[in-house]
Amino acid sequence: MGLTIADGKGTGNEAEVDFDNRLVVRAIVEKDLEYASDKNGLAYTWSSGTYDPDAGDTILSVKNTSTTRHIHIQNIWLSCDTETRVVIHLLSDNSIPAGTSITGTNLNMTSGNIAEATATRDDTGYATQGSILWSGEIQAATNPLMVAFDGAVILGTNDAIGVDYVSASTAADVVICGHFDTGD
Fold this sequence. Notes:
The protein is mainly beta and 184 residues long. The protein is built from 1 helix and 11 strands, in the order αβββββββββββ.
């Protein structure tokens, strides 16, 4: 008799192998954002809401204020009624955000968690742009453009990300989507 792999739940079931003696498995694959939302209630969006920015405005910034978790930026949605150049950049000079406060929306509606982050629309608190992560043009009044970072942009304590629009407009909107570390 060969080695037996039990199910691990005490039911007495054994793992199945196919005709080539390969273990038959079923994998559940979910993105980090889904996992953070489902298992921990730690996935959020921050939306500037539509407003009338001046040229060079930081439409939206998000600063991680958690001392125990990092924020992973998943994607950023951009739209504007005017063609404009967009600059997505890091902000890590420990400045205090200044502008209209934005509350993060927890993507898990069954969770009562509140994001440990400060988000600001029309932010004027940062003296300079940090490292540029992405820069490009968006067309006027078209479908929103999504810039995907897939969690690779990680904000530590007091690190922030900002989105600037170069041209003035009458209707600009930015949504930043991300999640906190889950501890797993």
